[in-house]
Amino acid sequence: MSLAYKDLESGKIRPVLKVQEGETVEIFLENRTRLPVGFQLSGVERATIRTIRPDQTDHVTFDAPSGGTFIYSDPHEAPVHRVLGLHGVMVSVPRTPDTALGVPTPYSRHEQSLKLQKFFEALGNSVALPGAWDPHDPERQKIWVFNTIDSRFNRRLEAGTQIRREEFMSTFTPDYFTLNGLSGYDAAHDYNTVPKGYLGQPCLIRNVNVGMATHGPHIHGNHVFCLSESGGNAPSQPRDNIVELDTWLMSPMDRKDLLLPFCKPPDIPENAWPPRQEPFPFKYPMHCHIEMSQTAAGGNYPQGLVTDWQMLGPYIPNDL
Amino acid sequence: MAKVDFTETSVSGDLNFDTFGCNVYDGSPSTPDRRRPDRRFERQGAKGIKVNMGRGEELEFWTFKDRKSGRTTFPAPMMRATAGEIIHINLKANKNTHTIHMHGIEPTPFNDGVGHTSFEVGGEYTYQFQANRPGTYFYHCHKNTVLHFEMGMYGLLIIDPSGGPGRLFEEGPAYDVEAFWVVDDVDPRYRGINHSAGLCGEDAQLNIFKPKHFMVTGIPSRRTKRNRKVKISARVGQTILARFVNASYSRVRTTVYGLTTEIVGIDSRQLGGRHRPWCSPMLLEPGESFDTVTAQRRDLIFRPTEPGRYKVVFEFRDWITGEIQDGGRGIAETVIEVTP
User: Fold this and answer.
1) β-bridge pairing A141-149 and A306-311
2) Mean pLDDT of chain B
3) DSSP B192
4) What is the longest distance spanned by two Cα atoms in chain A?
5) What is the pLDDT of residue A318?
6) Which pLDDT score is estimated for B94?
7) Where are the domains of chain B?
8) Which of B1, B85, B108, B246 should we substitute to test contact with A (largest number of A Cβ atoms within 10 Å)?
9) Which of A96, A156, A188, B257 could pair with A161 as two cysteines, CB 3.0-4.6 Å apart?
């Protein structure tokens, strides 16, 4: 058993909140659990609903922040309810996403660093960065939510036993590790999780860590470019130095936006590209390299925090 | 080119919950799209080796044997090549199945050494790639990785620029002294676990890791201050390159006292240069720390201007609590010794 925020209109569990920078957002919260719960948005202090009791309602109104990725979660006895499932992601779309040269980015113009602008303006101009990012194509954006489960506490939740923060913090021993609420084979076959595209179709991947563990996600096939990073309750912040990584550090409550360039995997021999024998799609894993996270119930490697990404072909088909 | 049958691999075979984890495809297929290599390495794994941890304690590690030289070391023997070369790595599995994943190298999935996207090596296989970017890489077994990597199945893979050692990347920097800091932590409990433990459902407690030993480049922390594989010796005016790899399961905090640290490369990629105006090297003040997680690499440059013994501290921190491992004993130290 876990907890979740549910969209009262669509019925979706842990819905992604999509807002546009500057617009007025109202969050209406109805507590249908047996526990006191609230609502908090990382990086937006105003967007907080303090604890409400079971069957109570409350709401909060705030202006949507600059473009970026945010975590919403329950601040009550944090991180207990957050880790048990009361969390989600908000994406803010910037009003002025373009660079001075008119190239779209996920960030507001006034927050873009010069290096970030140079990076986006370089997309599509080299073998290493073979395509521009299309903000209007939903296939070109994914969200990865990392979480940890200590199933002892989920059983206690189901039994209605009180879970004290101090005990949770001092004894938490995760035995399941999830990506978007899924593990292993399931996460590697989930439409919302697996980036797919042809060479030259870069994908923005918004990473957030709502769990208790520090993770070291590692991606195969392509390095990624780290566009922004924020932790805790800091505002979403595009980076001033766009570094290329194959492994990145995710502390609890970290948010990192990464761009997967969908370039030719650079170490395939030049005279063996495109391959004649090995067929597409090329499937590559992304997994946490702190390998205890690759387990489920103490074994079952690799049924933990892992997924795949897929390069469908070496060029974009004409009829796509 | 020899015909390659992909049907008994994850590339074209039926991929289901079972073949993803418990019964992963294995075999000895031919290398697809095979080209003539410029350099060839030969490895055998797993090969057991005993390491003296001090105070009379010996621990078992698994590693790869270099079949050409006959050397079996922990970490496994380094592979070194020059950018642009087509490289073949032939792996012979010594009983059971293993793989080699070249971490940071990005070849085709069949040459990437991951069972659930290709296959595990049951007999032998020749991995192929062209190392197109100089930098600091490492290779490791990607089967039941939580166990096989912890047991020591990894080694360094260094790709030099076209001029060979002495420069880190094509554009530099040039270096006079080269060092390797591969930090690792060791949980003795893992030594009693079967190589396939947990794969098909049993609870092997591989979600729990409690390290009791802390090492740098195969040297236990008791000896890292003096051991020549870890300690750096240089003269004033020389440029030192330290290639740092986090091969532990800890969040490692590294602090260099008395010297400015230039981070010039991350994860086998140059920071800055004429083709990368969107990034630049990072400078850390003396005493300023940087954190890494498993598998991250940092290329560090030091340019000492004064003689001295400069302390370097690696703190191994728990991935859940953030506290220093083993009740505060999870620390390794070394020095950069600079003479006039």
Assistant:
1) unpaired
2) 97
3) G
4) 66
5) 87
6) 85
7) 17-160, 177-339
8) B108
9) A156
CATH number (3.90.220.20, 3.50.50.60, 3.40.640.10, 2.60.40.420) of A1-98 reads 2.60.40.420
Three-point CA angle A195, A197, A201, nearest 5°: 105
Task: Say which residue the tokens 């660079």 belong to.
Answer: A99
Residue with tokens 């709401």: A59
Asked if residues B316 and B185 have their Cβ atoms less than 8 Å apart, the reply is yes
- Supply the pLDDT for residue A183: 98
Cβ neighbours of residue B273 under 8 Å, at least 6 residues apart? B169, B171
Beta-carbon separation of B146 and A272 below 8 A: no
* Confidence band of B332 (pLDDT split at 50, 70, 90): very high
Partnered with residue A39 across adjacent β-strands are A49
Which of B4, B102, B104 has its CB closest to that of A277?
B4
pLDDT score, position A320: 72
DSSP letters along A31-64, please? --SSS-EEEEETT-TT-EEEEE-TT-EEEEEEE-
Inter-residue contact B259 to B336 (CB < 8 Å): yes
Pull the structure tokens for residue B64: 């790869």
SS3 content of chain B, % helix, strand, coil (to 5): 10, 45, 50
Tokens of A254: 């970290």
- Domain boundaries, given as residue ranges, for chain A: 1-98, 112-145+160-311
Could you read off the pLDDT of B301-315 as tens digits, one per residue?
999 999 999 999 999
* pLDDT confidence of residue B55: 86
Kindly determine whether residue B104 and residue A174, on different chains, have CB atoms separated by under 8 Å: no
Q: Which position has the token pair 């989930």?
A: A190
Task: State the best of A126, A218, A300 to mutate against chain B, taking most chain B CBs within 10 Å.
Answer: A300
Beta carbons of B4 and A222 less than 8 Å apart:
no
Q: Where are the alpha helices (DSSP H) in chain B?
A: 17, 145-148, 325-328
| B256 pLDDT more than 80 | yes
Helices (H), A160-305: 165-171, 184-187
| pLDDT tens string B154-171 | 999 999 999 999 999 999
Q: What is the CATH number of domain B177-339?
A: 2.60.40.420
SS3 B171: coil
Nearest CA in chain B to A244: B269
Chain B residues with CB under 8 Å of A242 CB are: 278-279
Superfamily of domain B17-160: Cupredoxins -  blue copper proteins (2.60.40.420)
Name residues of chain A where pLDDT drops below 70.
none
Check if B17-160 and B177-339 are the same fold.
yes
What's the gap in Å between the CA of A123 and the closest CA on chain B? 12
Residue A215: strand pairing partners:
A250
All residues of chain B having their beta carbon less than 8 Å from the beta carbon of residue A119 are: 278
Between A215, A271, A299, which is nearest B206 by CB? A299
Which of B147, B202, B279 is opposite residue A241, by nearest beta carbon?
Answer: B279
Distance between CA atoms of residues A40 and A49, nearest Å: 6
Chain B residues within 8 A of A231 when measuring between CB atoms: none
Q: Which amino acid is located at A107 in the chain?
A: Y
Asked if the Cβ–Cβ distance from B198 to A295 is below 8 Å, we say: yes
User: A121: distance to nearest CA of chain B, Å?
Assistant: 10
- CA-closest candidate to residue B89, choices B162, B151, B26, B138: B138
Kindly report the number of other CB atoms within 10 A of residue B158's CB atom.
21
> What is the maximum span of chain B, computed from C-alpha positions, in angstroms?
65
Q: pTM above the 0.95 mark?
A: yes
